[in-house]
Amino acid sequence: MAVAQEQATGNGNRPENVETIQVRGIRASMVRAMDVKKESGGVVDAISAEDIGKFPDTNLAESLQRISGVSIDRSGGEGQLITVRGFGPQFNTVLVNGRQIASENQSRAFSFDTIASELVSSLDVHKTSTATMQSGGVGSTINVNTAKPFSIKGFKVAGSVKGVYDENSEEATPQVSALISNTFDNERFGVLLAVSHQERDTRLNQAQMDGWLENVGIPNPQTESGADWNGTVFSPRNYDHKVTFENRKRTNANLVFQYALNDDATLTADVLYSDFDVETNATSYGHWFTAPNVQGVNDDGSLFDADGNRVRPTVDENGTVIDLYQEVGLATDMHAKKFDRLTDTIAYGLNLDWNVNDKLNLKFDLSHSEAEREANNGRGNQLSLIGYANRVRFQVDDNILPVASMFADANGNIYSGQQEIDGAIGVSPIDGFPAYDPNVPPAGVSDLLDPANSRAHVMLRRGWAVDDKITQFRLDGDYMGDQGIAKAKFGLQYSKETKALTRWDNEGVGIHCTYCGYPDVPGIPASAQYVFDAGSDFLSGVSGSGRMPTQWLAHDGEAHFVYLEQQSGLSFDAVRRNNSFEVEEETIAAYLELDFEGEIGGMPLFVTTGVRVEQTDVKVTGTEAPIIGLTILDQTEMLAQFGDAQAFSVNNDYDAILPNFSAKLELTDDLIARVAASKTLTRPTLESMSPVTVITTTRQGGDLTSTSGNPELEPFESDNFDLSLEWYYGDASYASVGYFKKDVANFIVNAQEDRTFVTASGGTLVDPSTGSDSGAADADDAVAVFTNTLPNNGENATVDGIEVAWQHTLDSGFGVLANATFVDSNADLDPADTTQVFAVTGLSDSLNLVGFYEDGPLQVRLAWNWRDEFVQSLTQVQGDGPTIVEDYHQLDMSGSYDISDNITVFFEGINLTEEYVHKRGRFANHLLLVEDSGRRWALGVRGSF
Question: Is the model's pTM score more than 0.85?
Fold first, then answer.
């Protein structure tokens, strides 16, 4: 689509008005992105808006995944974090209008779901580095560009209104956006205001396990043949079925002022604001296992073998427990959970662009941004639990979903608190026993759904408050040279980031475990409970579904907190913990870069070489309260007692020299070869630099863990090499192939060490669950040995890969965009090797295929993305192994019709085939998460005047 528009051209910043033609639409967006790629000195990919306020995808991360080498992680069915060339979120520097912006994440990662795509005009992904770019991106540097009035020129109003329907939640929600821009006084002054408000109600159907524990005391396991097993044993931490309801609200605003001081100088002031809140209410039903209390069970339900011995738990050929029974210390709980994410981000900027003379241009840029995530009284991870002290059989087979069967004793009773419920539950739907049928529940299920039988249990409020502030000043200069030197670029940058992380919880004072033992008093009012029905199609697309009840008792978690506080006279509120800290990081940088132009055999050659020098000072301050005691809370948990808070302050500093070189050779007018080499760095995550020791697990039976940070961590350093060949054979068509290699040093390894602690009296801390008196300390208690995880530098790795891309358009209106990335490393994970402490995470092959048709007023676009299996993390929520994400693909569709030159109706379809995310541990049967976010539809109208 083309429209006539006044466009400013001419010398300096006070140009003349010349009528030009602006082309809008899918094809035009692809042409602009292709031009950026072609004209760049290094390897750069770009995405351009199809029109003002019209980005190709509904989410910036979803758009970025269409670029070769870029993959994403999703949250609630929406793209949030990115991985580039196998390097995850912390390895990619994200700039907004060339500036680093504060992040509400605990790490350095930038969450792309905090900025609405309607505010963005283009995204540039720099896969090779130059001295002019801010450091930090071993994977890439991504610049998010928002609209400016001098770029639009003249008066412009654009906006959209749409409704989004989520099939899982069966809810429709509104999304609106608007932009108004104008220039005045013969283009000397411009103002732009863009706003966006989006709401989305989602339902996430989930099955999850917090982790798989290694060698935590499973007693006397046997193989399926009955032989003894002496190898590593992997046992489940828990198993839950969960439905999470999310309400996502995102309000963005961008205000920009531009003023041409004279023909040669332009002043730009802007404010970007984001208020992004995810409020959740989750209900789940599941079981918590305690390894030392586990045994086996026969298929007929008996607990003893022919010799009168207890049946032993069974493991498979990998040592994974595939059949266990537990009645002592087992928790069968119905959870009311909250995982709220309440964030605010604001960024201010002031920029002066000054053409000093015909040869010299100077840019002065001052910016400040702040981001925070609220502690929200621990609702970042809040659990209200009711349930039963129960008997359960847990079994794993070839299906993705295991099965947990509530179990009856010889008299047909199952436990609930201090009473027993009559009625037998089917022992096992795997070994000849009937699977659960919600229409014909086995005897006893109705008793479990009776509110009179539930008991109060754990009441947790916990989470981190995050406060991040970044102040930056930049001076950038461009000097046009002579005699082969096309341009000299030079500059200075000062950056200061201060990120404070404050822990809030009610665990440290033990209040959360007031009712851990399922006491009969107080009873839970029946009016506060209800039977939740997840539906007969709950996770129906996942193998192994339908084998456990899809109905369970649910309750209002907030009301339950209030009720128990009234009954106990206690407050369950989260309190500020003394293991909070602040990291202050100051960086001073200077750079010089030269551009050369020449010829080789009549072929134009463009060369860029430069160096960036940086000095970074780090100061970590905070308080830490050391652990001084352990006390028994119930049959599974102990309470850590802490001493007086102690202040600490630790300093560190390091320097970096980052050279770069790139060359572009125009073999023909359409064929371009590139080569690039550079050195880049990524700084360690801020939370990993805190020396605070955090006690993470205090379970009976020796399950004691802690983590510590390391303020002396050095940055990751990478030597990079790129080689590519690009063929631009049409106005909107090209093909390219590229090879990249990264040699990375100083990877951080989470080493584990045994650690003991000192009590207030100077003695060694002991574990009271190990002595003859399991309720109090005695002389038989063993020393409490914690497995402490500590990050250190030390590992090197090489990552290399091939990227291919093809974009082709036809005069008929059809077009296609296809790309693929194949990546490899010498530091892959061997899941069977439990001694391996390092592997490169995030590595995966990926494919994109986008087809479109655009003719006159009609546009249709179909986009398919696939990402292969990858290691997301070397840790689990509460387990000892890695987190591996199985391969995932998604099909999206969009279309629009121009009713007039100014009005367009459009539709969108997200995840058309209803794919689900599947995460696992070391082996295929180590389920960690299955999440079905469902399919979404949108219908709306867009105007542009």
Answer: yes
